[in-house]
Design a protein that fits this description.
Phosphoenolpyruvate Carboxykinase, domain 3, 28% strand
Length: 285
């Protein structure tokens, strides 16, 4: 892909203010429309992710191009992240626009030890836990069953970042499938990260059971939890070989580091058990 996006190149005055995304590892992103047509996209994205106006951060420049049928990206090691998006011709394309901009921000952070995981995030007494697993395993159901003082922060996807001290933090991430086919949508407080205490990989069983797993198995499951999201993107006909290479290089290294630093467990769920009590025992130990 050649050429660079430039602000202010349209005949109309840009009125959409840029929005900021601040992560717990200190990285800040400034999401800006490069043309008037992209303004609606970033306003929708900011509403879903509860982002605020901002004036500094690494720029994410977004432009809509009629000749493009799928999103295209330029993600250099430094400088602006540039996004060329297809026009918003129907509701499905609007969802793809938001999904891909958010996903590419997370992919660009892979080299810094971040991961975008197919897993639900919940907070318990100030700490976060992730319930990860393939689609349909029960992440959303488990999230909805958590009683007080538990709080479900996201029920499908979580972004994990590592700060300069080596502490891992978990950010809730939107459930983009809720916007497809006339779904209910929603909003997520993406910037409100919680310290990550443990990761639980879900399965199904007649009774609730929890067991610790080793670093090797946890690494493999974390790689799988990242690959699940890449597969979902391919179903939307968004395929980028460079993103796949990043996932299985930087993403693998990030999974190894996370598996070494944060305890991981297998958690088998029954239909009506009190699985959260097993988690509370682990967190209290």
């Amino acid at each position: 892909m050649t050429g660079a996006l430039e602000l202010g190149t349209t005949n109309q005055k840009l009125e959409t203010k840029p929005f900021g995304l601040a992560l717990a590892n200190g990285h800040r992103w400034l999401i800006r429309a490069a043309d008037d047509e992209a303004g609606d996209c970033i306003r929708r994205l900011a509403q879903v992710m509860q982002l605020r106006d901002a004036d500094h951060g690494r720029e994410v420049l977004i432009a809509l191009r009629p000749r493009h049928t799928v999103p295209r990206f330029d993600i250099p090691d430094e400088g602006p992240l540039q996004c060329w998006l297809p026009p918003n011709l129907n509701p499905a394309m609007g969802v793809i626009q938001m999904t891909e901009v958010a996903r590419r921000i997370s992919l660009s952070d892979l080299k810094h030890g971040s991961l975008l995981i197919h897993g639900a995030l919940a907070r318990y007494r100030g700490s976060g836990i992730i319930m990860a697993g393939r689609g349909g395993i029960g992440k959303s159901t488990a999230s909805s069953r958590l009683p007080e003082p538990w709080h479900s922060l996201s029920d499908d996807t979580t972004m994990v970042v590592r700060d300069q001290r080596g502490q891992y933090w978990a950010h809730p991430w939107p459930t983009w499938s809720r916007f497809r086919d006339g779904g209910p949508g929603g909003t997520w407080a993406v910037e409100r990260a919680v310290p990550l205490r443990a990761v639980f990989f879900l399965g199904r069983a007649p009774s609730d059971r929890l067991a610790p797993i080793g670093t090797l198995q946890a690494t493999a499951l974390l790689v799988e939890a990242q690959a699940e999201l890449a597969y979902e993107a391919s179903l939307l006909k968004v395929y980028d070989p460079s993103a796949v290479r990043a996932l299985f290089n930087d993403g693998f290294r990030a999974a190894v580091a996370l598996a070494r630093a944060v305890p991981a467990f297998s958690l088998e769920l029954s239909l009506d058990g009190r699985f959260w009590e097993l988690i509370e025992e682990v967190l209290g130990s």
